[in-house]
Design brief:
Elements: E1 6-9, E2 12-15, E3 21-25, H1 33-46, E4 50-54, H2 58-70, E5 75-78, H3 83-91, E6 96-99, H4 107-120, E7 124-129, H5 135-141, H6 146-162, E8 168-173, H7 177-190, E9 196-197, H8 207-220, E10 227-228, H9 237-249, E11 257-261, H10 272-282, E12 290-295, H11 301-307, E13 310-315, E14 318-323, E15 329-331, H12 335-346
Parallel strand pairs: 3-4, 3-10, 4-5, 5-6, 6-7, 7-8, 9-10, 11-12, 12-13
Antiparallel strand pairs: 1-2, 13-14, 14-15
Helix pairs in contact: 2-3, 3-4, 5-6, 6-7, 7-8, 8-9, 10-12
The structure holds iron/sulfur cluster.
Length: 349
């Protein structure tokens, strides 16, 4: 299947080897513009590159205009069943539409939507979920198998292509991690459309983070995936932090602080977890890539801490502060504050 490998969401390139974009979704009532904008801004501040909002009725589609005007990042409209809402969102400046061409009521509606997408040069994501696959495909494959997810997505893509549009992003999600991974691998072999990856309805932070890290991480390590969404129950800002951590763990994002901290043991002299949490909270705004170590004792601590840009190792009466290229110094007071001060200094503040 011939396919576009890069699309633009607003001014953001998606696909074609460009940096993998982090996205999330608001869980406010879209019609409540102040609340939704506040959440969009919080997501953007946490590092979200694009934000999706549900557009499920006329009032939501009308709210899109104010949301677009007030948002610091491109917005995506999530639409089901009613193509006229997608058209209204496009007229109101939305940068991307997520829809299932299979559920908007026939080819006439697909054609009208594609004409509008073309006119606004806005890409469409065809998002297939294991829970809403076509009956025929469920029968053909004996359930929501990876092959069924891919066949569904490509079938919908063909409908859009039929009307002369190829600014398409595909996603095939399942709550089952191996199936999600397999579906994206299969799709990456048969088309070059940008892929949105994520494990759907992964749960609450904890197991949800683990499922997402395994599913998304396994794909990113193979070079598959152009935008990621970690799907977690609760405050969507946590999805952004988790997505950024996954990208960092697979080496695709360097900015911000990478913490190295020991698991603690009977030798531990300092509250390692507390120090890490205090420093993490106080340095969330930092974009410079830095390695920061917090080690509980001077047995293994100094060796590890020395590999970092800055670090502390606990001692009986305080700790030792290590900074790359400088002599270690002993610190008696608050180790978290000593680290924060040192980090700010490294950032030239
Ligand atoms: Fe224990 Fe020290 Fe290793 Fe931490 S660095 S786990 S305190 S030996």
């Amino acid at each position: 299947m011939a396919s576009a490998d890069t699309v633009f969401v607003g001014s953001l390139p998606l696909g074609g080897g460009n940096p993998v974009l982090v996205q999330s979704m608001t869980n406010t009532d879209t019609r409540d513009v102040p609340a939704t904008l506040a959440q969009i801004r919080a997501l953007a501040e946490a590092g979200c590159d694009l934000v999706r909002v549900s557009v499920y009725d006329e009032a939501c589609a009308n709210a899109v205009r104010d949301l677009v005007d007030g948002s610091p990042v491109p917005l995506v409209a999530d639409i089901h069943f009613d193509h006229t809402l997608a058209i209204r969102a496009l007229e109101n400046g939305i940068s991307k539409v997520r829809i299932n061409p299979g559920n908007i009521g026939g080819e006439k509606n697909v054609r009208a939507l594609v004409d509008c997408l073309k006119m606004h040069r806005v890409p469409v994501r065809i998002g297939v979920n294991g829970g809403s696959l076509e009956k025929e495909l469920l029968q053909k494959y004996g359930g929501p198998k990876p092959e069924a997810l891919v066949e569904s997505a490509l079938g919908h893509a063909r409908l859009v292509e039929k009307y002369g549009y190829d600014q398409i992003v595909l996603s095939m999600k399942s709550t089952n991690v191996p199936d999600t991974v397999q579906a994206a691998i299969l799709a990456s072999k048969v088309c070059s459309y940008p892929l949105h990856i994520g494990v759907t309805e992964a749960g609450t932070p904890g197991m949800g983070n683990i499922k997402s890290a395994i599913g998304i991480g396994a794909l990113l390590l193979q070079g598959i995936g152009d935008t990621v969404r970690v799907s977690l129950t609760g405050d969507p800002v946590n999805e952004v932090y988790a997505a950024k951590d996954i990208l960092k763990a697979v080496g695709l994002r360097k900015e911000g602080i990478d913490f190295i901290s020991c698991p603690t043991c009977g030798r531990t002299c300092i509250p390692v977890g507390e120090i890490v949490n205090t420093v993490r909270e106080a340095t969330k705004d930092i974009k410079k890539p830095l390695k920061v170590a917090v080690m509980g004792c001077v047995v293994n601590g100094p060796g590890e801490a020395r590999e970092a840009d800055i670090g502390v190792a606990g001692g009986k009466t305080g700790g030792i502060l290590f900074r790359k290229g400088r002599e270690p110094v002993s610190v008696k007071g608050d180790l978290a504050q000593a680290l924060i001060g040192g980090i700010r200094e490294l950032c030239g503040e």
